Amino acid sequence: MSTKSQYGADSRSIYGVALIQVLCGAVFAVDIAYESHIEFMNGVSISPVELFHLVVELIAVALLFVGFRVARATYNRIQARNIQNSRLLVSMRGHFDDIIQERFGQWRLSEAECDVALLSIRGLKISEIARIRDRKEGTVKAQLSAIFHKADVGTRAEFMSLFMDDFLDFSSANPPATPPQHETAI
User: Fold this and answer.
1) Which of 147, 140, 143, 142 is closest to 108 using CA atoms?
2) pLDDT (mean) for 152-175
3) How far apart are CA 119 and CA 175, in angstroms?
4) CA atoms within 13 A on the CB side of 23
5) Is CB count within 10 Å lower at the N or C end of the chain?
6) DSSP class of 174
């Protein structure tokens, strides 16, 4: 299931629960109004048991509507946070390519080395890189060795960590703007 369809299913579930809360609250409120109307119109005094019953129903109605309000506010905060995180991720993805190209330029990698380095960053094995580039594994190993030397690292893990550091530095230096806190109807 895609993330987008998952969010849609989650939203529908939340809307469904909210609708159930509102309907239950409305049913209880109508029941209380009806019982109160009957008692007062008939001039019958309310027994302590009936009074207790009405008070419990009033509290239940109040709690249902308070619960709905709290759930709605929480849902809106989560939605705002999801939008904020999505914007940051899109920004980071767009800048990650820039970060990679900038590093490759700083190291003065050849076009072939850039290709090998990029495939290595994507996690491909030497044999896979060789097959994709139609080169021998020894050639790819030599190119990776040259790349690591230019990047001043000794292993793939160290090489990857350079980009992860840049990626994390970018994300911490460019936090997303806090979205306005507005309420939308559930």
Assistant:
1) 147
2) 78
3) 29
4) 6
5) N
6) S
CB 116 within 8 A of CB 134: no
Rounded to two decimals, what is the model's pTM? 0.49
Tens-place pLDDT, residues 50-99: 889 888 988 988 988 888 888 888 888 888 888 888 887 777 777 788 88
* 3-state SS record for 2-15: CHHHHHHHHHHHHH
Residue 129 host element (H or E): helix 126-133
Q: What single letter denotes the amino acid at residue 71?
A: A
Which residues are CB-contacts of 114 (< 8 A; sequence separation ≥ 6)?
104
Six-digit token string for 159: 């090489």
CB neighbour list of residue 36: distance below 8 Å, 6 or more residues apart: 54
Rounded CA separation 174/50 (Å): 61
Q: Which stretches of 42-125 are DSSP H helices? A: 48-107, 111-121
Q: With b meaning 16 or more CB within 10 Å and e meaning fewer, what string describes 32-69?
A: beeeeeebeeeeeeeeeeeeeebeebeeebeebbeebe
